[in-house]
Amino acid sequence: MSTQQTPSTPPSATVERPTRITVLAGVNALEGVALAVGGVCLLVMGLLGKLESTQQAETVGVTLVALGAIPLIAARGLLLLRSWSRGPALITQIMALPVAWTLLRSQGALIPTGIVLAVVAVTGLVLVLNPATTKDLGIRRGPGATPGA
Asked: How far apart are CA 119 and CA 112, in angstroms?
């Protein structure tokens, strides 16, 4: 018996990340950064007293920063091809749709923001629900799905 350990994945068998997964990770990272930046802006404005309700601004700011962590973690998991990352990525896209709808029903500059958010969320949904994405992340479908069958 040899005392050398064999790596679990040989260098020639490294899995290449599909473009679809990379784009999905980018969409999630974009949403996560947008949430975090918005939260930090609210926190700063609340701390500087530039808003009517500083306590509400700080609460919403902390919440947005915390919510921004979800898509950022999902983006990292997607880049590493982790199967668990599909759930947070899907939830992020589903949560973005009502926000986009609310922005679309607003006035002024919020309407174009709603359009952009809706396009990003629908793109993310299409990518995350694509059966090839499920396969690339190693998620088995159905009760009778077995590897190699």
From this structure: 11
Distance between CA atoms of 43 and 61, rounded to whole angstroms? 5
- What average pLDDT does this structure show over 125-129? 95
> Cβ of 104: how many Cβ atoms within 10 Å?
15
Q: What is the pLDDT of residue 102?
A: 96
Report d(CA 6, CA 53) in Å as an integer. Answer: 60
Which residue's structure tokens are 């997964």? 21
pTM of the model: 0.79
* CA 114/CA 118 separation, integer angstroms: 6
CA dihedral 132, 138, 144, 148 (to 10 degrees): 100
Name which of 104, 109, 39, 29 is nearest 72 in CA terms. Answer: 29
